[in-house]
Amino acid sequence: MDCAVCYGFGDSNAVTFGFLAGLTGQIIAILALIVMGSPTIIICGFVPVFFDNATIGLVANEKGGLKACLVLPFLSGLIQVFGAALIAGWVGLANYGGYLGMFDWDTVWPLFTVAMRFLGYAGVALVVIVLLAIPQIEYKMDPEGYFLITEDYDKYVEYKASKTK
């Protein structure tokens, strides 16, 4: 499944507002890179604006209202451009066309990229171990709810509510 599956379940304007706020953040960040004379310039990416920022806008609207729907995708747009420019320039990927502008690739993956670049095969092994450990840790923290959240979400909500009492 893709994140666009959830678009029909929230406020109809939240997706559009998230898209526009993220696009605005990206454009401001690109202008800032130009003004600062950055050797690496990032272009607006439709995929990150739509799939990251529109989805963030939808979820943020449900949890925090219109203000969150505008602010969080805007910040995401800034992070997408500045993060991609930073890591693409730092590890030399700018010479080969750049770096992926998705939110996760501009927050978590720069650390992984640096580890793989400077530690070689040991860095690759470290990244693989971390990525394999994450679901194991999540399972250990909540073995009953780990699979229930996808199998029967209504039962999962009941389960979580009973745990908080």
Question: TL;DR of this structure?
Answer:
By secondary structure, the protein is mostly helical. It contains six helices and no strands.
Defining traits:
single chain; 165 residues; mainly alpha
Give a description of the structure.
With 165 residues, this protein is mostly helical. The protein has a domain at 3-98. Helix content is 73%, strand content 0%. The chain is built from 6 helices and no strands. The mean pLDDT is 89.
Sheet/helix structural class: mainly alpha
Arithmetic mean of pLDDT: 89
Helical residues, percent: over 70%
Elements, N to C (H/E): HHHHHH
| Bulk shape | flat
Largest sheet descriptor: none
Q: What's the gyration radius in Å?
A: 19 Å
Write down how many β-strands occur, each being a DSSP E stretch of 2 or more residues: 0
Number of helices: 6
- Note poorly predicted spans: none
Tell me the β content: under 5%
Give the end-to-end Cα distance, rounded to a whole number of Å.
33 Å
Topology overview:
Layout lengths: L13 H22 L10 H45 L18 H11 L1 H21 L1 H9 L1 H12 L1
